[in-house]
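Hi! If you just cloned this repository, the fastest way to understand the data is to look at a raw example. We've pasted two of them here, unedited. The first protein comes first, obviously.
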Amino acid sequence: MLPIGSHPVWHPVFETLAYAAGYAVFRRLRARDGDVVREPQRWTVLAAAAVGALLGSRLLGLAEQWPTVDAAWHTGQLIWLMFSPGGKTIVGGLLGGWLGVEIVKKISGIRRRTGDLFALPLCVGIAVGRIGCFLAGLADDTYGKPTSLPWAVDLGDGIGRHPVQIYEIAFLVLVGLLLSIRRPLAEGARFRIFVASYLAWRVVIDFLKPQLLIYSLNLIQWSCLAGLLFLAVGWLRNRKGLDESTAD
């Protein structure tokens, strides 16, 4: 068992580094590969992604902690809880940002697939942020269940746990390497590969986290399944459209 301890002071540091690293990768890819939308449209898409991610992350994070929200409601501390640090989820941010972009694209009449430039930056940003989650230990809600495996980590309570954040970092590195391979793909495919991979990963890895379950799954897992279902429906619709155009 590896003694790690809990160091919550590092969480905001690596959260800030995650945003900076993700944006740096985005700018580099955009300068190297160009963009499918014009400058004003890209900034509109970025703004929609940021607002949607912020709202989605917070809302799903609070929903995941419903007993705490309910207690805050009855004690008159709900407003404080809404604006307190913590209580955010990556899955909520990913789904919220995606929804925000789709809404703005519909309003603005943007018909191109705009997500490919986000795929690798998201891999990098989430991986860097997970370092902060790992160092925060018991102060963060992402720690793993107890285990007797030799690489278990002690976060300060003397209990060996799965280092689930390290598992996720390794997974993101693998996905990032695959996405970095410069091969021809349909527009939007890289983003959808990332989203599908990450949501599927979270369905699996969250079984190793001590979370409140609803019909054998936690709220994050149900959200991931909903996102995967939406992706599958979109893929089938696109496939049907391609088949019809080929028949014509």
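Ok, and the second one:
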Amino acid sequence: MTTTVEPHIATKIEPGAILYSSWGYDQTNIDFYYVTRATAKSCWIVPMSSCLVEQTGFMSETVRAGEPQWFSGWCECKHTMSNHGTVLNMAGPDYPYCRGAYGDDCDCPKPRPVPNVPEMHRIKRWSYGDETRETIHLTSYSSASLWEGGKLYASHYA
């Protein structure tokens, strides 16, 4: 899947805008999203990869937005793409079969990733001082805002 709008820094939620979500308990997770389509009240997003900018300490770093992820990490057989090919106790990188989520065989002769279908979210506008900001609600514990282009702090455990 291709798009005619390049990912960019934006001042409003519009096609090509990059959103980010910062969430977590005892760690800071950063997720990036690419806006594929927008109307006055809604937008459609796909996930983006993130790129390491620099290590800032033990299990912490700064990150920035990467590329839109047009395909998920799952094969159409419902096993993770990372479990196709080389997994423990397998014959090397040219091993032609999916070993499934737990090392079990499946009937998938060739991995076929599932396309990421853009998800629709309602745009929430709210005033902050003299400016109006836009966000979208993602889950019960996260929302996403416009990314301003800088590096963002992230941390993790194991």
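That's it. A detail worth noticing about the second one: Residues 86-92 have pLDDT under 50 and may be disordered.
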